[in-house]
Amino acid sequence: MAVVLKSQARQMGTKAQIKALRASGKIPAVVYGRHFASTAVEVDADDIRVLFTAGNRFRLIDLEIPGQGTQKVFIKEIVREVIRRDIKHIDFQVVEAGEFITYRVPVETVGVPVGVKIGGGNLSLITRTLKVRVVRENLVDKIEIDVSALEKEQAYFVKDIPFTAGTILTPSRQAAAIVA
Question: What structural domains does the chain harbor?
Fold first, then answer.
């Protein structure tokens, strides 16, 4: 089920106008797609915070755009302020049914490796995100890898990750996790 987010139309403005927009609790954004004209919008910063807190960063969003109805979108890019990490701008990409999306998915480990329990080693997650290509309907929030069988001085490679939702574009010979 997609998350619903409301937006308001906005005019392209000067730096001072964009700064005032951010000060009022709004985030400037743009919506674009293959068969969708680029549209400038603004979204509420609190709504975005709630969206991210709920773990919806990699899910489809039903974005309500005034005068253009509701579009299924994916967050393509987020521009953040360097020091405070506040969101300065968001790019939403309209995704049609059956269309492929290429994006980065976080990797999480499951289980405690044998090499850590018995061998006294340490688990290191080498690859924190994987670049994947999936159909719109197969978006995933994270990829879990079971590292419980890893012994000391063994690695879990990208080629070993079972991923049936699409294609992993990260090089297959890259290590995902190592017990050292």
Answer: 3-96 (2.40.240.10), 101-179 (2.170.120.20)
